[in-house]
Amino acid sequence: MGTAMAASGSRSVAETSFEFSLERMFAETPGRPDADIFAARVLEKLDRGWTARRLLIGSMGALGGLVGAYQILGAGALQQLQAAASRSNDYLTQHISHEAGGSLVLGGEAIWMAAAVALVAAGIGVARLMREI
User: Fold this and answer.
1) Is the distance from CB of 68 to CB of 61 less than 8 angstroms?
2) Which residues of 37-70 are buried (b: 16+ CB within 10 A; e: fewer)?
3) What is the CA radius of gyration of the chain?
4) How high is the pLDDT of residue 62?
């Protein structure tokens, strides 16, 4: 019984020694002469995939925008939007000049220009956010 314990104890040391040498062999992998070429090919394939995905997503978005614009124009929504815009311009101009005591003359063009600038700023912010992601 004592020999069995001694044998199992020495086997444990041998197993531990084997595990250490195995870990050391895998930790120190030998260098391959074509490792840089292989890594470059893998990176090239990954980059090519992202370029294709970006082009596909962009073209599908453009196609969806064209279909949506066609649907909006076909439904006569543009005329309704122009009528609503003119009514809102008149209302805003009257409201702003009433609040300013009549001394401020602000046309609808100035309001639309401010809205356009805000829209451009929002677009730039979204583009920057997409670039960060």
Assistant:
1) no
2) eeeeeeeeeeeeeeeeeeeeeeeeeeeeeeeeee
3) 35
4) 92
